[in-house]
Design goal:
Structural class: mainly alpha
Low-confidence stretches: none
Order of helices and strands: HHH
Largest sheet: none
Strand content: under 5%
Mean pLDDT: 84
Shape: flat
Number of helices: 3
């Protein structure tokens, strides 16, 4: 037995990919993106305590 890091493949039936697929055409034609900036470790909770968009979509 050897420890192995599981491959992080895109789950095509997962919520994050379905969200992307629904918006793909609009994003290809327009400049629609979110720049979250650097990771914040201290400050107001609306800045520091935000999970990534992928985690938000996975847990809806």
């Amino acid at each position: 037995m050897k420890p192995v890091i599981r491959k992080a493949l895109v789950e095509l039936d997962g919520a994050p990919f379905k969200y992307f697929a629904a918006k793909r055409d609009k994003w290809a034609a327009e400049t629609c993106y979110v720049y979250p900036g650097s990771i914040q470790y201290w400050g107001p909770s609306e800045v520091c305590d935000q999970p990534t968009k992928t985690l938000q979509l996975e847990h809806e």
